[in-house]
Amino acid sequence: MKFAILAAGEGSRLASEGVAKPKPLVELQGVPLIERLIRIFARNGASSINIIVNEQQPETVEFIKSIEVGCPINIVIKSTPSSMHSMHALSHLLRGEKFCLTTVDTLFREDEFANYIKKFEEYEGDGIMAVTDYIDDEKPLYIATDEKMEITAFCDKPTPETHYISGGIYGLSPKALDILDRCMNDGIHRMRNFQRRLVESGMKLKAFPLGKIIDIDHAEDIIKAEEFIAER
Question: What is the total count of domains within the chain?
Answer without folding.
Answer: 1
